[in-house]
Amino acid sequence: MTENPPLSRAERNRLQMRADIIQAAFEEFAARGYHQTAIADIARRLGIGHGTFYRYFENKRDILEQVINDVMARIMSALDEENSPTAAVSLEDYREQVARISRRLTAILTENPDMCRLVLFEATSIDPQMTDRIQGLIEWAGTLTAAYMENGVRLGFFRPDLDTEATGHAVVGMILGSVLRYLRRPGDREAQKRLGDATLRLLVDGVARH
Question: Mapping DSSP to helix (H, G, I), strand (E, B) and coil, where does residue 208 land?
């Protein structure tokens, strides 16, 4: 198998500048809000000119697309092979799987609260296309969660009468509610634990075949 050739210094510098612009823009979005942030604010934070910015991005919306892509990449990474919809073959497997996924998604949230706040609160106020993208991602999450439900029904460890599609979207609603509560009260660890435990019980005991 052939290895990819090493990047040239110019290419490494280009990729680093692109990453630096994304980071600077995100910091400005977090501090000022998306709508209040101007290209000049991003350029000033990095000490670059407007022309340098526009060599890498068309506008600040283009950067927000990159932020959303990064969030999705992190979420998909949390749903790797052992956490895929068909990985669990028993209720105990599923219970452990839900706990793993919960820990990974919680880490994404607690490490990047401003990123989550930007995507949930500001992205849908930019334009109809961005709103449609966020709503589409939420719809996708519900469909993906339904696949976990379908696997449990098919293998017999979930209730046979479970409405997998509706339950999948209901689960996403619970998760979004938990995220919003965390963003409002990030320091309330006691409430977060109780809410997390209650959600896990619903995700297991609420669908298990008895």
Answer: strand
